[in-house]
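pasting for the record
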Amino acid sequence: MYPIEQPVSVLKGVGPKRVDVLNGLGIKTISDLLTYYPFRYDDISEKNLMEINDQEKVVLKGFPLSEAIVNYYGFKKNRLTFRMMVDQAVVSVTFFNQAFLKDKIKTSEELAIYGKWDAKRKALTGLKIIATSEGEQDFSPIYHVNKQIRQTTLVDLIRQAWELYGQEFSETLPDWLLTKYRLMPLRQAVKAMHFPASVEESRLARRRIAFEEFFIFQMKMIELKRSEQKEEVGLAINYDLVQLKQFIKTLPFELTKAQKKVVNEICADLKSPKHMHRLLQGDVGSGKTIVAAIALYAAVTAGFQGALMVPTEILAEQHLESFQTLFEPFDVKVALLTSSIKTVAKRQILADLATGELQIIVGTHSLIQEDVHFHKLGFVITDEQHRFGVNQRKILREKGMNPDVLFMTATPIPRTLAITAYGEMDVSVIDELPSGRIPIETMWILPKQVDQVLIKLQGLMRQGQQVYVICPLIEESETLAVKNATEIYEHLSAFFAPEFAVGLLHGKMKAQEKEQVMTAFKENKIQALVSTTVIEVGVNVPNATAMMIMDADRFGLAQLHQLRGRVGRGSLASYCILVANPKSEQGKERMKIMTETTDGFKLSEKDLEMRGPGDFFGAKQSGLPEFKVADMMADSQMLEIARIEAILLWSQSGWETLEENKPLLEVLKQDKKQMDYFD
């Protein structure tokens, strides 16, 4: 074991309890601790009172004029206050829940206090007392910590670890790369991340670490793609072009330019003997289902079976309805396989799949059960693929002779992120909506205006139209004051009675109950549907022209956009009403952006800037690497350079044998963490 890979328990002051606390931060070894980088640096240079803006975070130096007084209130809460002389002015200082600082405040000793300035009250809300060792610095690194460990304790441990083991860091990138981009050596960069001598040094250190993270990741991505192409000989699906053109001619509308381009890309992959590994991105309502139908039909004309796997039963049923209408004139047999299918019907479907009688199957995770056998599976599409585990998708692929695979998503992923997240895939994008679509009008209202909007929704229902009302939580939550779906359902039922029927749909209902409600809504037996986000993906009711989203500030932009896409699917004008009273500036900004654009790609860029990639996709499902320092949006140019350098290096024959690249090879072998989600 390398000394740097020893457990943190070897450090002085790290007993079993502290080991648990550090483990909770993802710190298990000395290496983890030394690469646990600060997420920002606070300016702790001393400021003159005349220079400071209201609510600015600053450092003030002065002598306390009195001893500190501690007042206790509420449950385990306290307030420490004293007055301090700063620049010939008396300043009131308050620390919350830091009673332990009382002994450090002495009238005979000068203090440097970091806190937030209130210009009106001439008061400072203290955040911390700056240590003497920090007094010479103009800024201080800030780390993500929890309630069990203080910033100062973590910094002390990092300093101890660096003094004992810092020399163990050896260079990982080849000299030619360091020279080309003027990158700081690794050991110097790690030290400068924690203990920078200047703002510029911390910037250069961050630049070096971020570049390495991107470069190593891109090297792994290319390695993965190359190994797939070597090991996996794909199918050459020689479809009948004449039949395919005939099928496209029968569609009730002409394909958009974007759809035509994407169909050509997919068809070229089908014909190629290489294994297809393509991601199809399309904004809400851009017509991905038609593209999927064309691609599946192409596989059928070559004598292969096709499968479409979707995350929900409602979505599966909807796709089945669309496909049956499209394929009926061409004698293509399509069936549905979900957990709700009765035993007798299921037995027949499985038999027809095994004999090849059934050419296209649409289903949920039921498609990957052991008793599902295909006669000749050649093409698999998974819709909203981030909702399936990697293993689930792998099993479906193994049902055939290494079939071609197309992933579809209605989550518009910004190009920078698509390259990083799906670097091993080819990406197709449908970036235009079908002609004739009327843009959805989005408005933001406050909760007190809801009843006025309900009167307007009533007017739409009197014209025969239908509405959605969306809520973020099913059950009461003490931590989030969010009205639950049931409460709103009861309120609306009373409001619209007896003229209109209101339905309720949420995730805890049984599949059969959901189906009954959804069917009633599709048939206009229910005019207003109160629902949680279970209607988010793919549900298609053209007669629904308005959506009101309660507590809209609880959702991310990407999710709001997905929800909004459930209306505006017919020829009538449609509306999306966001009900929110956000307290933060970011919350207000999100609502404002939603009213300004219906472009999913623009929204996803914004969402990513404001929330980060984990939030954007849902951290556990994203399939995105977690970088310690690199930021895919802020560092998009660096990401692109790292990708190009990785491509160039892999294209050089025998680069792995060169002595200068050996440290890099070692890192590629060891660095499995970033790739775990592919296992």
